[in-house]
Amino acid sequence: MDSLGSYEIPSPTLTGSVPRDLMLIDKVLGVKIALSDHRADYPSFSQLARLCSETKRGALLAGKAGIITVHLGSGKRGLRDLLEIVEKTEIPITQFVPTHLSRTPELLEEALEFGKRGGYVDITTGSPEEGLAESAGAVAKLYREGVPLERITLSSDGNGSLPKFDASGKMTEIGIGSVSGIYHNLVHLVRHHGFDLEKAARLSSTNVAEHLELSRKGRIEKGMDADLVVLDAKTLEIRHVLAKGEIMMEEGKLLKKGTFEEDR
User: Fold this and answer.
1) What angle do CA 105, 111, 114 make, to 5 degrees?
2) Which residue among 187, 206, 221 closes a domain?
3) Which residues participate in catalysis according to the annotation?
4) 161 and 247, same structural domain?
5) For residues 184 and 186, what is the distance between their CA atoms, to the nearest angstrom?
6) Are residues 148 and 264 part of one domain?
7) What is the pLDDT of residues 129-171, one digit of tens each?
8) For 34, which of 71, 137, 171, 189 could close a Cys bridge (C-beta 3.0–4.6 Å)?
9) Minimum mean pLDDT range among 78-82, 141-145, 178-182, 229-233
10) Taking the model in full, what pTM does it have?
11) Statement to judge: residues 44 and 63 lie in one domain
């Protein structure tokens, strides 16, 4: 797990406190919260500041990044709560990774300013059926209008729940996030927005690894974990996949499957 938490504040923990989780559980790199969402806790400034401070303190002791992943809903406050923390405390803007930032046009405009101020901005990817053009277009807008490429990241919500609500806030249906969104966005950015492949690939590899301070990820070098996806140079179709050096796909043929995947 890269972060521990939920929409609740105080954040759920395994050891009784956020700093202890960070220090004692190697896979915990930070926490996750929700803001500006009708399902969130709407924390006070002091509650949010305390959580940020606890995360920062635990991360320093554990030698980790201590990133606070922030689920952003479509509420009126947008990124204001995060900006208030940055302006009124010593927590750096890079401590946060706000996500779902293409959810509304207003939130995307706020993300543009957040990124220009030095913050990281994360776009949740869509598959061809889930708004691919919208998410790739949001990335292109951020980059085109001045957010440094190294501050933009892509995430997928792969296999996560995707509820849909009507105007009154009633849930009308629930779906499952696509695990292929990042790949489809990479291809869309190259084919329709003029990104070269290296720039597009950084968004879900090098940029993420550097922000989370994962020293063995995000680069192709000796001693790294060898998590590789090899694409056909012309078609951009996936040809080979390696995970920590183990071949998972070769010449387009899937060789390894998960525990609950059907053998087809």
Assistant:
1) 155
2) 221
3) 157
4) no
5) 5
6) no
7) 667 788 999 999 999 999 999 999 999 888 887 788 888 878 8
8) 71
9) 178-182
10) 0.90
11) yes
